[in-house]
Amino acid sequence: MDDKAESVSELMDPLPAEPSADEEEAATTPAGTEATDEQVDHIRQLRERGLAQTVVDGGVKARAVGFGSGDAAGTIYKNYYGTPAVDPVDGRVPEGDLDRLRELYVAPATHTALVDHLTRHGVAVLRGAPGSGRYTTALLAVRQAMDTGVVVLDSQAGVRRLVTDERGLQPSRGHVIEGDGTEWANELRPQLLIRLRAATYGRSPLVIVVDDHVPVGGLTGHVVEHEVADGTPFQVLERHLTVLLADRPLDCRKLLEHDGLREDLRGRRSMAEVAGLARQLARRVRDGDDIDQVVQGLGVELRAKAVRLLGPPQKNGADGAGRQQLSLWSHAFLLACVVLDGTTLSRVSRESHRLAELLHGVRSPSSVPAMPLFEESVRDWLDHSDVEFTDRTGQPVGARHPECLVRVSQPGLGEAVLEVLWHDHSGARGPLLEWLDSLVVRGEEDIRVSAAQTVGLLATFDWAYIHEELLVRWASERGEHAERRWFAAAWALERAVTDPLLAPRVQRLLSRWSQRRDFQACAQAAYGTRIGAKFPAEALSGLERIAGAGTRSVWAAVREIYAAGSRAQVLEWLAQWSASSRHWLRDDAAKCFHGLSRFRGERAVTAFLKEPGSREHLLLLSRRTLLSSSRTYRQCGWNCMRLWVERAGDEPGLDELVADFFAELPEPDAEGDRLRERLLFHLRLWGHQLPDGDTALHIKSLLEERWSM
């Protein structure tokens, strides 16, 4: 009896009564508490409500209620027409995409210089501002220099491999690699470029695209500077509209001659944004909309309206229409409506009072003799804030409705108000940031998300100011509210990265922060947003540095990257972590494996049992976890296997796949024999424990059959 009990105890791998210090650390979030799935999902929905407003025409940002301006994962462009549909790793650009690009292309002066450089040297570093059309210029210049095809190289793999890897540069093909946000872009040296020039043999021209912040000292003779003339945005718009409205030349000419459209172009900072504007205009013209109304709905009209709303207060006077111009308190209410768009009237008015106090430098409105407390009412402010009331379903309601929510009535007006405030009323910057910081510290989750995303929007107006005044302080916070500020900085960066001009800066910033202990918590949180979904390889590399430092688990961030769609990459990285010599990485590999096994549907890891490459990574991860010397890791592994078996009872055909997978787990050695014994034991155990125990027993019989063959 005693021998049998001892044998069963060994097979079950019970958890230790008291986890070790390293195991305990691996099970906690940066704040020391594990967030529930419901909390994570709720915060994600709040963030997406502010980010993903309306995206049409393959990424054109529709100006939506409040200041949200598009999906973070879909508004970062590389060229005028949209990213070519190529394999992200050394994929060839379809000729049809290149032909379409050529049709829409407005060649800058750089184009001829780049083609000449490639013809003479074979390798060129194209340096210019993100969003200026560098990528499109690189593609078409390479296509002209080598007319047999263009290959886009894997940016994460870098350029050093091209010198020694025979598969890197394809003979008789042109090549483009983008260095935005990568470490290797800052480490380019003349010796490397000379070796690359020799590797091309003049038959495989290569353009290395970098942004204008990358230092190029010492690279004289290798760099082609990409510059955009002042009139280029209008030329790009004209070319796109001419192509898109080729059958409606009269409407095209009316648009191009409209003064309001030319004015609106001044607020467009990238060629991709100009191209998106052209597609938006063409679509609305084809829908039959009046051209004057189409142009009036653009940013210039919204900014003009914002200027009027933020006009100087004239407490005892009236504007030209006979309406009273209200005080500073009404402006504070307007700003609160913009930032807290979609929240209740009581919350908006409460926070507007706090903002007004900061703007005026006092603690109570009643302490200002010129602004008696009861002289103005919320109703007065509402009439001058251009807002509307709805319930939670979006239906109009009255101001006294129990679920009355305040919403900015005109799409894009909120963003215009903040833009005008920031550029035209510089004295309000400090108080506004102080107020936003207070919302992050003490507000509810929805208010914290709104405040953080507002900071991210302000960063698109003035990156240096916001970076210095708030982002660095939030990211390195060590006080009572540290965790809230870490996540606020992460959510702000998630909003900022939607701007194509800021994306490389955010990438470089997070790469640096992932290497500095004081900033690692914030970097981890940021990689767990859509930043990680947009740049999965870069995010997982940063998370590996953070996990390897041994200060915190990165499970929460890995889960978000996996859930966003980069599932195969996550499994590959976890398989590598499970074999690491650093136990902190092994900790996170086991914890992530267990957490990911809880996903169902298309996100379930069992979906990879039918995909050879990912299946191999899953096999390595499972084997290393189940055979680990740590009882905690082994328990994580057996819990994963149990979840798979339990799921096999609900999904037809999964039992066969699980049995095949289990059969391959043991290797032909002593450890493999022990693993076989444990697998059979646990399947018998689950046959008694699970509601559908027959599935476990069926898998056991299939397993025994495969091992006997």
Describe this structure as you would to a colleague.
It is a single chain. With 709 residues, this protein is mainly alpha-helical. Strands 3-5-6-7-4-8 form a six-stranded mixed beta sheet. Strand 6 (174-178), helix 8 and strand 7 (206-211) form a beta-alpha-beta unit. Helix 14 crosses helix 18 (413-424) and helix 15 (328-339) crosses helix 18. The protein is globular, with a radius of gyration of 29 Å. Residues 1-10, 14-33, 53-88 and 315-324 have low confidence and may be disordered.
Notable characteristics:
709 residues, mainly alpha, six-stranded mixed beta sheet, two-stranded antiparallel sheet, globular
Give the helix proportion (percent range): 55-70%
Helix/strand/pairing category? mainly alpha
* Main beta sheet strand tally, sense and closure: 6 strands, mixed
Q: Helical region count?
A: 34
Distance from N terminus to C terminus (CA atoms, Å) equals: 34 Å
Query: Would you identify the regions where 5 or more consecutive residues have pLDDT less than 50?
Result: 1-10, 14-33, 53-88, 315-324
Strand fraction equals 5-15%
Q: How does the overall form come out from the CA principal axes?
A: globular
